[in-house]
Design a protein that fits this description.
Layout lengths: L9 E6 L2 E6 L9 H16 L5 E6 L22 H10 L4 E5 L2 E3 L1 H8 L2 E4 L4 E3 L13 H9 L1 H10 L2 E3 H7 L4 E2 L5 H14 L16 H18 L5 H14 L2 H16 L2 H15 L4 H5 L8 E4 L3 H12 L4 E4 L3 H20 L5 H8 L2 E4 L10 E4 L5 H14 L5 E4 L6 H6 L7 E6 L8 E6 L5 H13 L3 E6 L6 H18 L3 H11 L5 H8 L1 H12 L11 H7 L12 E2 L8 E2 L1 H13 L9 H21 L6 H11 L9 H8 L1 H12 L10 H9 L11
Parallel strand pairs: 2-3, 3-4, 4-6, 5-7, 6-9, 10-11, 10-13, 11-12, 13-14, 14-15, 16-17
Antiparallel strand pairs: 1-2, 7-8, 15-16, 18-19
Bound molecules: (S)-3-Hydroxyhexanoyl-CoA (3H9).
The site of (S)-3-Hydroxyhexanoyl-CoA has 24 residues, from β5 and α3.
Main location: other
Keywords: Fatty acid metabolism, Isomerase, Lipid degradation, Lipid metabolism, Lyase, Multifunctional enzyme, NAD, Oxidoreductase, Peroxisome
Pathway: Lipid metabolism; fatty acid beta-oxidation
């Protein structure tokens, strides 16, 4: 009998003549060095023990295995390597069965593929999501998966990183059986007994024949290569995945494995891997705001939304999608009707696309009610206000909420820049007020800035984070200031772009450079999409308080004065064909820019794309650092998550703060000081950057401090 040591991350127990090897490394059974080591020992023991006829590999707790231990990437590798463990399992002379529940992802699925047979409970999920971390399946996955399910299906799994259910996995041939119950151990043992009774051999995935049709395999590889070149042109690992699958087709299994290893190590060393892994952990860290540890969230079962405009309707959809009943308040019946129609339009589109049935749509809309009277909110646990951005209007709404809402209701504002402390101070219960800053379209965009006014009680903030989880949003805690984290930093790098435009770069060159960096759009395209009138209104509002010594570029104002507000008016910085969304450069805009340069007495100069990006990023990083320095963001990683999820910052670069560390904070500071020679008022180095550079420290060193 093989002894069990309770502290082991691999537990072994003999059931008759079947050795159950259980991975027990909470929370997700990541395949850490210790797990790999003990797995190796377990299989050595199984091989040597004459009382063992077969091995059943399962996971303890909530999963089979969530993959390689992501925390080990970037550190010195510790043996044994996961590919070696997988090879050892596949080479085992006795049948090895993997019984899967929860998730089998990445290295977890590769481990299962190295087993000889696979059974899974019906709720299990499978995937090879390494691409989302800048990697490729590096434990034989690129060699075994195509041999088992064919090049096309394997490439689809590896390039999309998506998870599939047990039914699909079974249809593909990734698993052999779906268990009849949820008891993974009992069903796994029964399946193993059946295999033993049938004298099933140790069947090895390396010998599987799904690549036998070379013509269709080659076609699938070429199609994937073309697709990757088009859709993921900024990314490093997708092409490496295609290369690895090509190796699976053209090389022996062992040579293919060696090739996979080389490609994997190239990905592991890439800055993209570092950026994507940073984003993975940062997204999880932001959820743990201090208030969520201190206080319990209030119960939210009934929600009110004030305003049925684009934002209010989008918020209502986000809430309905999370299964919550929503009461929409508007000032009159016509506006209420319009708000309801905006909500319905979202679901109509889903029905058109075949992603929702008419019955499902009716069920969702049955949870939406509307009223022109605030009194309809007397039962609401949470009210989110999304009315016109004007302090007087907001205060009037909050006075009504103060009057009608029950005690303990959370009162939230969706303002993007107004002083929430002032809103909170205007009512009798400031502790219940919080900012919930959604991004448009509110039912799509993942970011939710949770803005914390000074008097907010901890359980209100905990409630906001709990709501974000229900809405499947990524919450970032922000302090009160003009623009909070995101819009405050945006104002600065947009100003840097405006300065460059006035100094000689065309908006089209700037947008292209920003896209080439990895953003989906440049700042002038964003302005055209959002509507130039929005920024114009903000600029007018700030005009009175703007430092007259500060440089102010008037080009956007000249464009707005002509009624050119972007896509919705057919022209802005770009010209749009009737109803079109892709703009063309506009010679008249270029003429306006020339006139403005002349008016400002500027002789235009040329900019390289590299200089454009250095200035753009230096502005973003500097203000991001200020936001951390002032405690508006808890840590640099909160700024990163804000920009990745709310502003299209390329995820593979991790976020602006991570990017600053990647290029070197001292280099960024040197750039800022260089740019300051021409405009010292705008380019003031953030005290945080100066301090970190003096100490030789990184922004990342501040990520642990929340
Ligand atoms: C790989 O396998 C490479 C191989 O091909 C080659 C190797 C040679 N490692 O998300 P949650 C932590 S690459 C370490 O909140 P959920 C996570 O940080 C890997 N830690 O829960 C969190 O910690 P904390 C391929 C991990 O239920 C806690 O677990 N695999 C790992 O919403 C709970 O996570 C993947 O890409 C890990 N692999 O979702 C899968 N996974 O509590 C990545 C999770 O301290 N993981 N943690 O914040 C996931 O997709 C989700 O975490 C999962 C659970 C679906 C598993």
């Amino acid at each position: 009998m093989i002894p069990v040591t309770p502290s082991d991350v691999i537990k072994r127990e003999l059931h008759g003549r079947v050795l159950v090897v259980r991975i027990d490394n909470p929370p997700v059974n990541a395949l850490s060095a210790r797990v790999r080591n003990e797995l190796q020992l377990a299989f050595e023991a199984a091989e040597a023990d004459a009382t063992v006829d077969a091995v059943l590999l399962i996971g303890a707790g909530r999963a089979f295995a969530g993959g390689a231990d992501i925390r080990e990437f970037g550190k010195l590798p510790k043996p044994p390597a996961l590919p070696d463990v997988c090879n050892q399992i596949e080479a085992c002379g006795k049948p090895v069965v993997a019984a899967i529940h929860g998730v089998a992802l990445g290295g977890g699925l590769e481990l299962a593929l190295a087993a000889h047979y696979r059974i899974a409970v019906s709720g299990a999920k499978f995937g090879l999501p390494e691409v989302t971390l800048g990697l490729l399946p590096g434990s034989g996955g690129t060699q075994r998966a195509p041999r088992l399910v064919g090049a096309k299906a394997a490439l689809d799994l590896m390039l999309s990183g998506r998870h599939i259910g047990a039914k699909d996995a079974h249809a593909l041939g990734l698993i052999d059986e779906i268990a009849s119950t949820d008891d993974v151990l009992a069903d796994g043992l029964a399946y193993t007994q059946r295999l033993l009774a049938a004298h099933a051999p140790a069947r090895r995935t390396r010998d599987a024949r799904a690549l036998a049709d070379r013509t269709s395999s080659r076609a699938a590889i070429e199609a994937a290569r073309a697709d990757a070149a088009k859709k993921t042109r900024h990314l490093f690992s997708p092409m490496k995945i295609v290369d690895a699958v090509q190796a699976a087709l053209e090389m022996s299994f062992d040579d293919g494995l060696r090739h996979e290893r080389q490609l994997f190590l190239q990905c592991l060393d890439s800055p993209q891997r570092a950026g994507l892994v940073h984003a993975f952990f940062a997204e999880r860290e932001v959820q743990k705001a201090p208030e969520t540890r201190k206080a319990k969230p209030r119960a939210i079962t009934n929600v009110g939304v004030i305003g049925g405009g684009t934002m209010g309707a989008g918020i209502a959809v986000a809430l309905l999608d999370a299964g919550l009943p929503v009461t929409m308040i508007e000032r009159d019946d016509a506006s209420l009707l319009r708000g309801g129609a905006l909500v319905e339009k979202v679901y109509d589109r889903l029905v058109e696309k075949g992603r929702m049935s008419l019955e499902e749509k009716a069920d969702v809309l049955a949870r939406l009610s509307g009223s022109t009277s605030y009194d309809a909110l007397d039962k609401a646990d949470l009210v989110i206000e999304a009315v016109f951005e004007d302090m007087a209007v907001k205060k009037a709404v909050f006075a009504e909420l103060d009057r009608v809402c029950k005690r303990g209701a959370v009162l939230a504002t969706n303002t993007s820049y107004l002083d929430i402390d002032a809103i909170a101070a205007s009512i009798s219960r400031p502790a219940d007020v919080v900012g919930l800053h959604f991004f448009s379209p509110a039912n799509v965009m993942k970011l939710l800035e949770v803005v914390v006014p000074s008097k907010a009680s901890a359980d209100v903030i905990a409630t906001a984070f709990d709501l974000a989880k229900k809405l499947r949003k990524v919450p970032v805690r922000a302090g009160v200031c003009d623009g909070f984290i995101g819009n405050r930093v945006l104002a600065i790098y947009r100003a840097a772009a405006d300065h460059m435009m006035e100094d000689g770069a065309s908006p089209y060159q700037i947008d292209r450079a920003v896209r080439d960096f990895g953003f989906p759009m440049g700042p002038f395209q964003v302005s055209d999409l959002a509507g130039g009138d929005i920024g114009w209104a903000t600029r007018k509002r700030r005009a009175a308080t703007r430092d007259p010594k500060m440089r102010y570029v008037q080009i956007a104002d000249r464009i707005c004065e002509r009624g050119w507000f972007g896509q919705k008016t057919g022209r802005g910085f770009y010209l749009y064909a009737e109803g079109g969304r892709t703009g063309q450069p506009d010679p008249e805009v270029e003429a306006i820019i020339m006139d403005e340069r002349q008016r400002a007495g500027i002789t235009p100069r040329t900019f390289s794309d590299d200089e454009i990006m250095r200035r753009y990023m230096a502005a973003m990083i500097n203000e991001g650092a200020n936001v951390v320095h002032e405690g508006i963001a808890l840590r640099p990683l909160d700024v990163d998550v804000t920009f990745v999820h709310g502003y299209g910052f390329p995820r593979h670069r991790g976020g602006p703060m991570k990017y600053a560390d990647t290029v070197g904070l001292a280099n960024v500071l040197a750039d800022i000081r260089e740019f300051a020679k021409d405009d010292p008022l705008f380019w003031k180095p953030s005290p945080l950057i100066v301090d970190l550079v003096e100490r030789g420290a990184t922004l990342a060193s501040l990520n642990q401090s929340a």
